Amino acid sequence: MGSSFTIMRVRGIPIGVHWSWLIIFGIFVWSLTKVLYPAAYPGLDGATYLGMGIATALLFFGSVLLHELSHALLSEREGIHIEGISLWLLGGVARLRGQPGRPSTEARIAGVGPLVSVILSLLFGGLALLANRLGWPEPVRGVSSYLAQVNLILAGFNLVPALPLDGGRVLRAWLWDRQRSYYPGRPGPRSEPARRSASCSSRSVSSGS
Questions:
Q1: Tens digits of residue pLDDT in 169-182
Q2: Which residue among 115, 120, 140, 167 is least enclosed by CB atoms within 10 Å?
Q3: What is the dihedral of CA 9, 117, 208, 205, to 10 degrees?
């Protein structure tokens, strides 16, 4: 994705940030600091709300990054080269070079992202419950509770059966398996994309926020 800069590499995969991410990050922090957290947890000081907003935004975009990394790492395990991951205005994009060779591979690569988001939701939800039980400070309870909800929403949104979302790719894998062709209405062997991979350009796996 153009107009992005690399901030790190994970197992050789470049992680980039698009300039639009900086805009949404600022808006996200402002809305959490000025609207959501003051309404949900009144009586805290401005610095605390700001700290909660920044921590939430960083952890949420970290969650999006883990979602995309799960796609990327499983793709590489399946022999599909990853050009990189970009965080941008609406979430994240993992750029894959080539196509999965079988419908089961396509389904696994697509499904692992929402699975990671659900796991993160459960972890943050468990932390929120623990914080409530042990009487931890409100900022810890508030941030962990919000992250549990937003990760669950992220998983649900990505399971919508429409491309380029993960749910659309799972549906495509199911149709591919049923029709024995990667291309709707065109019969052929299940491994058809593997033979075409040499002529394929890069493709993306997106997660919206």
A1: 999 999 998 887 76
A2: 115
A3: 60
Q: Which residue has the higher pLDDT, 196 or 27?
A: 27
Q: Which of 68, 76, 78, 106 is catalytic?
A: 68
Residue 50 DSSP symbol: H
Overall domain count for the chain: 1
Domain range enclosing 98: 4-109+169-208
Once rounded to an integer, what is the mean pLDDT over residues 36-47? 96
CA distance 41 to 150: 18
110 CB contacts (<8 Å, ≥6 apart)? Answer: 71, 166, 167, 169, 170, 173, 205
Annotation says 83 is catalytic: no
Position 195 in a domain: yes
Establish if 35 belongs to a structural domain.
yes
Residue 73 near residue 65, CB atoms below 8 Å: no
Rounded distance between C-alpha atoms, residue 209 and residue 207, angstroms: 7
In Å, how far are 8, 63, 167, 173, 193 from 199, measured between CA atoms? 30, 33, 26, 20, 10
191: in domain: yes
pLDDT digits (tens, 9 = 90+) for 185-200: 555 554 455 433 322 2
Contacts of 27 (CB under 8 A, 6+ apart): none
